[in-house]
Amino acid sequence: MSESIITAGSKAKSVRESKLVSIETVAERTGLTVSQIEMIENGESVSLSPLIKIARALGVRLGTFLDDIESECPVVCRSKDYDKGVRFKSSNNTQHLDYYSLARAKSGRYMEPFIIEINNSEGDDFVFSSHEGEEFIYCLDGSVEIVYGQKAYALNPGDSIYYDSIIEHGIQAINGTAKILAVVYAPV
Question: At the top level of CATH, which class does the domain 82-185 belong to?
Answer without folding.
Answer: mainly beta
